[in-house]
TrEMBL record:
Pfam families: EAL, GGDEF, PAS_3, PAS_9. This is EAL domain-containing protein. InterPro entries: Biofilm_reg_signaling, EAL_dom, EAL_sf, GGDEF_dom, Nucleotide_cyclase, PAC, PAS, PAS-assoc_C. Residues 16-67, 147-217 form the PAS domain. Residues 94-146, 221-274 form the PAC domain.
Length: 704
């Protein structure tokens, strides 16, 4: 009997241990997943778990001994709580939703289950409440309630084309806008297939993207395609495609397609594409366009057995025509010069205008040097004839420098540089001739080597200094900041043009130490101005791609800010559209810069169409309209159209715009009328040294 009793007791102990383990497991799971509180019969809190503290923002010490009224949001009526207490006071379990208030005053919803524990007399001696955070569900529920009527109004009145389709394209629903915009009968349309309305050239790409989208389970797909109207013509649409669920007895996948008519936008982009990619005067490709085409051609060079030549062309004594008879006649001469070049080259060749009276030609698929020389001589011959303008003859010749691929370079920059070197030798001689680049020319580029050596010395000996050009609010005339511009005064050679030493610094890599000095000096000066009362001004510093590629660039920026104690919000990093050549890598660096609190501006915007494709994805804050569009904005409709389009694009994606090169009151008036708020240029001030800039700020403060 003793042995049997011992076995029973041991069995009970093991069973009790097992039950206790299960209870502890349940307690652990409950504690980790639910918000738990224990109160006595009066409602005084005796226990709360970590989730309760986390959600309410109160510490355990702040909650212990308190009543649940500490969480009262005031949302529920007294009767609500009276009924709840009546229920649990009678020993019944209460379940419901309660809106509470956190320590910081914010509100949240919980679903609560309150369980009373009864004593031997059947009266509650404590309560355990188990809560679940349902704030998001309640917010969604409220949104759904408020949106039901809105959805109906939106569907009936939106200009967007909204449709629900099957994976095979069959239409389940089409919004009334299909009738308003495309003039389709909705009943007939809902018996058709969306893919039948899409342009046959666009459909394969859309179906490929759609298949990938459905397979990968992405949240949404953004795409563009052309959609046919009832009349048979097409509109461009921007579509957002997403998956949804529909029940008609069983759940089946449906695809929601929301389309926006962007035909007008496409037409504007097409116009901007041409205007921004071509020189307005000659209709030749501009510098950016030509460089892109040359770069693409060189990428594919290995596939071709033919040679290629670059011609750098400059008009002789063109400046005298502008000076003697004015720019109007000069513009006509430039147009005729472009015609002379175009008539001499072949359809497969590309001629571009680099600026001023400088042209460039890419001769594609030349068999040998003799073919190149024949084309060059035709160009020279065409310039031998007088250019007649309103009965007056003007004689303009040209000089040409030639560089051949691959003998004289295998990159666009090297080929153009060597063609320019050859051109420089022609211009320094008799002109009206041509010269093919050779090693002798390269060896004679002493000035470049001397200048590079002088630059290295100048950086060590602090021969550089900064000037600042103010940026102004066009409406208030208030100064908002300044652009820091580097200058070089050589002790023997005097002032050296930035146009000479900046490109050389880029080529040699000296732009990295020079750029670091510019950044540090401009931040230090801006902090000084802030400290003496010139507050609310931002300094913008030009940064090249070469600097951004420096792996230590971000650390250098941080060190400069730390050393100068300038708040990052008063620094603006200015980059040019050349960043788009390596946009994927540069964007990462720009994001890091913005994370420091620094603003980023894109300089010379509008001179390259590629920016329109990338601009919405670039981490930038400010666009700077290139001065080439500002100089004749008050007279030239094309320039005005480009500026208005840029302002509209910037406004749609939340970017500021600054116009460069403002020189006339007419520029200010036209830009202000078009909605441009900020600008800089000689109309306000040339770049100024520190003392002169302070005087400028003082004068501006007096006049405001």
């Amino acid at each position: 009997m003793k042995i049997m009793k011992q076995m029973i007791d041991e069995s009970n102990i093991e069973e009790i241990k097992e039950q206790l383990k299960k209870l502890l497991d349940i307690e652990y799971a409950l504690d980790k997943s639910s918000i738990i509180a224990i109160t006595d019969q009066t409602g005084t809190i005796n226990y709360v778990n970590d989730l309760f503290c986390e959600l309410s923002q109160y510490s355990r010490e702040e909650l212990m001994g308190q009543n649940h009224r500490i969480l009262n949001s005031g949302y529920h009526s007294k009767q609500f709580f009276k009924d709840m207490w009546k229920c649990i006071g009678e020993g019944n379990i209460w379940s419901g939703e309660i809106k509470n208030k956190r320590k910081d005053g914010s509100l949240y919803w919980v679903h609560a289950t309150i369980v009373p524990f009864l004593n031997e007399k059947g009266k509650p001696y404590q309560y355990i409440s188990i809560r679940t955070d349902i704030t998001k569900e309640k917010e969604l529920e409220e949104q759904v309630i408020q949106s039901n009527e809105k959805y109906r109004l939106i569907a009936e009145n939106t200009v967007n084309l909204i449709t629900l389709i099957r994976e095979n394209g069959n239409i389940e629903y089409a919004s009334p806008s299909f009738q308003n915009v495309l003039h389709y009968d909705l009943k007939e349309l809902e018996q058709g297939n969306l893919f039948d309305l899409i342009h046959h050239d666009d459909l394969p790409f859309l179906q490929k993207d759609l298949d990938f989208f459905l397979e990968k389970g992405q949240q949404s797909l953004d795409c563009e395609f052309r959609l046919r109207t009832i009349k048979g013509n097409y509109i461009f649409v921007e579509a957002v495609i997403s998956k949804t669920k529909h029940t008609d007895g069983s759940f089946k996948d449906l695809i929601l397609v929301v389309m926006k008519d962007i035909t007008g936008k496409k037409e504007v982009e097409k116009k901007i594409f041409h205007l921004a990619y071509h020189d307005a005067l000659t209709d030749f490709p501009n510098r950016r366009s030509f460089m892109n085409q040359l770069r693409n051609e060189l990428i594919n060079r290995h596939k071709s057995k033919y040679k290629m030549s670059i011609l750098s062309i400059d008009l002789d004594n063109f400046k005298s025509i502008n000076d003697q008879v004015g720019h109007d006649v000069g513009d006509i001469v430039l147009k005729r010069a472009a015609e002379n070049i175009q008539k001499a080259i072949r359809p497969i060749d590309i001629a571009g205008r680099m600026g001023g009276d400088e042209f460039i030609v890419m001769l594609n698929k030349v068999k040998d040097i003799q073919e190149t020389e024949a084309i060059v001589k035709r160009i020279l011959s065409n310039f031998n004839e007088a250019i007649n303008i309103e009965g007056q003859d003007y004689f303009v010749t040209c000089s040409i420098g030639v560089a051949n691929y691959p003998e004289h370079g295998d990159s666009p920059e090297e080929l153009i540089k060597n063609a320019d070197n050859a051109l420089a030798h022609v211009k320094s001689g008799s002109k009206n001739d041509f010269l093919i680049f050779n090693k002798t020319i390269e060896n004679q580029s002493i000035e470049r080597r001397l200048l590079e050596s002088a630059m290295r010395t100048a950086i060590k000996e602090n021969q550089f200094y900064l000037e600042y050009q103010p940026k102004v609010n066009l409406q208030t005339n208030k100064i908002i900041g300044m652009e820091a511009l580097v200058r070089w005064h050589h002790p023997d050679l005097g002032t050296i043009s930035p146009g000479k030493f900046i490109p050389l610094a880029e080529e040699t890599g000296l732009i990295v130490p020079l750029g670091e000095w510019i950044l540090k000096e401009s931040c230090k000066q801006t902090k000084k101005w802030h400290d003496i009362g010139y507050t609310d001004i931002t300094v913008s510093v030009n940064v090249s791609v070469r600097q951004l590629e420096d792996p230590l660039f971000i650390d250098k920026v941080k060190n400069v800010l730390m050393e100068t104690k300038l708040n990052p919000e008063w620094l603006e990093i200015e980059v040019t559209e050349s960043i788009l050549a390596d946009v994927e890598n540069i964007v990462k660096i720009l994001r890091e810069i913005r994370q420091l609190g620094i603003q980023i501006s894109l300089d010379d915007f509008g001179t390259g169409y590629s920016s329109l494709s990338y601009i919405k994805n670039l981490p930038i804050d400010i666009l700077k309209i290139d001065q080439s569009f500002v100089k004749d904005i008050h007279q030239n409709e094309e320039s005005s159209a480009i500026v208005q389009a840029i302002l509209k694009i910037a406004d749609s994606i939340g970017l500021q715009v600054i116009a460069e090169g403002i020189e006339l009151q007419d520029h200010v008036l036209k830009l202000s009328k078009d909605g441009c708020r900020f600008g800089q240029g000689y109309f306000f001030s040339r770049p100024l040294k520190v003392d002169a800039f302070e005087q400028f700020m003082d004068r501006l403060l007096v006049t405001i």
